[in-house]
Amino acid sequence: MDKLDRFIKLAKAGEGTYGVVYKAKNKLTGKNVALKSIKLEKFYNKGEGVPATAIREITLLKGLRHSSIVELLDVMQSTDKLYLVFEYLDLDLKRYLDNTRYSMEKELVRSYMKQLVEALAYMHSHRILHRDLKPQNMLVDKEGHIKLADFGLSRSFSLPSKTYTHEVVTMWYRAPELLLGGKLYCTGIDIWSLGCIMAEMLMKRAIFPGDSEIDQLYRIFKILGTPSEEIWEGVSQYPDFKLSFPKWRPISLRELINFHDPEEEEFLKYMLIYDPSKRKTAKELLKMNYLKCAKLTSPELEAFPSEQNENSD
């Protein structure tokens, strides 16, 4: 049996830059998998071979083993396509938030944050940055697990940091040092993105939904205040920093977010700090009281598609 013949495609689960993701079933095990299909012809036509993002994703995921990182089960190639076989989870966090009627239960937020911070601590200790954290790249299941996925923009880093492209991370979750043109960056960019995602879990909408880089910066400034050398040493040295930026005073996050307790508020604040050197690392966040009593919590099951609906797509 050809490796690919083992799988029956059940439904289209999503579409990305380089291909389509299907929900599929392994005929031998009866288990559902996510089958990511990448068309190679357009890359071969350009003389590129297999896309760099696919190679990067395969290389990084083959070396990662963590309960909160989606598992790459197999890699297969046909004449014109590359297939990545992943473990299957029911939904991404963005669709989960869109499908729920109520704000997320505080223990679910806490549980999700613990799992995500543990995954980042593991990645960062292996010198890997995700660089594209957003709710669409986090998968959830009905048991309460959440896993990081889509490692197409990830890369390993070395210390001292090399110059990397700052055109990474979807705009709404992009750290201010990237928006200001910084080319030297480290694990703090993932922590900032995670802070934006936690705020979104609590608000049920994005905290900084900018429509351009300058609009994105101004939305951050209007809430956290316009940064200065006093609060962020070296900020004026960034290529895109302007002394003519409008001066906004910071507002309390409590004006935007209905926090459940002071520990939740403190935890979020440590991720949304301007100066990346003062942002807590994933390892430091794990030691905070907020995560100490986190336990696996069931999500709202009505948010998940029924098997019947999925298979009729």
How would you sum up the global shape? globular
Low-confidence spans: pLDDT under 50, at least 5 residues? 156-168, 309-313
- Give the number of DSSP strands: 10
Number of alpha- plus pi-helical segments: 11
Which sequence of SSEs, written as H and E, runs from N to C? EEEHHEEEHHEEEEHHHHHHH
Rg for CA atoms:
20 Å
Percent range for helical residues?
Answer: 25-40%
Characterize the biggest β-sheet: 5 strands, antiparallel
Which strand order spans the largest sheet, edge to edge or round the barrel?
Answer: 1-2-3-5-4
- What proportion of the residues form beta strands (DSSP E)? 15-25%
Structural class by secondary-structure content: alpha+beta
First-last Cα distance: 27 Å
Overall average pLDDT: 86
Concise synopsis of the structure shown:
Pfam families: Pkinase. This protein is of the alpha+beta class. 32% of the residues lie in helices and 16% in strands.
Question: What would you say this structure looks like, in words?
Answer:
Belongs to the protein kinase superfamily. CMGC Ser/Thr protein kinase family. CDC2/CDKX subfamily. Its EC number is 2.7.11.22. Keywords: ATP-binding, Kinase, Nucleotide-binding, Serine/threonine-protein kinase, Transferase. This is cyclin-dependent kinase. The radius of gyration is 20 Å and the shape is globular. The protein has helices spanning 41-45, 52-62, 93-99, 106-125, 176-179, 188-203, 213-224, 262-271, 282-286, 289-292, 307-311; strands spanning 7-15, 19-26, 32-39, 72-77, 81-87, 91-92, 128-129, 138-140, 146-148, 155-156. Helix content is 32%, strand content 16%. Helix 4 (106-125) packs antiparallel against helix 6 (188-203) and helix 6 packs antiparallel against helix 8. A 5-stranded antiparallel sheet has the order 1-2-3-5-4. The chain has a 3-stranded antiparallel sheet with strand order 6-8-9. Residues 156-168 and 309-313 have low confidence and may be disordered. A hairpin with a 5-residue loop joins strand 2 (19-26) and strand 3 (32-39).
